[in-house]
Write a structure and sequence with these properties.
The protein is 37% helix and 26% strand. It is of the alpha+beta class and 311 residues long.
Amino acid sequence: MIQFVPITLSDRTLFEPYLKNAEKEGAEYSFTTLYMWAGIFHSFYKTIQINGQSLLIVKSQRTAQAPLHFLYPMSMEGPVSPQTACAVLKEASGGIPFVIGSLSAIEAKQLGDQKECLVDIKEDRDSFDYVYEASALATLKGKRLQSKRNHLNAFIKDYPNYEVLPITPEAIPDCLVMNDRWCQLMGCRFDLELGQEACAVHRAFRGFRELGLEGMMVLADNQIIAYTLGEIHNGNTLLVHVEKAFPQYRGAYQLINREFARHILNKYPDVKHINREDDAGDEGLRKAKLSYRPAFFIEKQKAFIPALPKP
């Protein structure tokens, strides 16, 4: 029996072909996402051979009270049948109840049609990714984004000597200092999720080169006051993993958002969309992401599978 093992930076080469063949647009199908959050979500993986297919199985369980969570199995040889997915995940679960997350509508329907799975399918609105037209974020044109331009113009007026620079490996220590100060300012000592996010950010920066990440930072008052990290995902999409700005600098978020979009469009003219990931059910974050007028959502569903009957 092949055991599950932790996701490490060196696993990127192994994961990439599976992720590519899965042809999924969601942020969960980026190795960077999986690696960044592996320590927080207690994520593990294993590969198996079944019916002539090589499958990658990824599981996680954020807390002991949370249900076991799997991504839909990924194959090197093409789509995985719902029968195979049910069989391998039931075995991998060890007979306890589990969830299959980040499902497309097609995957959810196919699983729902499998009587032996006994699945309960639900929409997972908190996990919908927000996707924007890259050109819209780079220009902020139009009446609907007027408030964003107002904030941005206020920043430019208040800090005329600001600088926007790409993040280099040499700048990473200063970015981490800024991130930790932001975390303290926002009360991460009293907010478990904020503290965990700070750990995920450190993990991403440690793998900056190996993960193929790109980023921008804004300097004002002789310090970094905003930064962002992302990567090109599936050829024509920028996937933004992190964006931070000190809240006392009005317009800093709008500026770093716009400048990163401009930088990416200049460097990668084929990029059409920017995926700013989900809102995790946070109402404030949902309101902020909706205010940028997403072009569409990457909708996701999840399947609940009960415990196997005892013999």
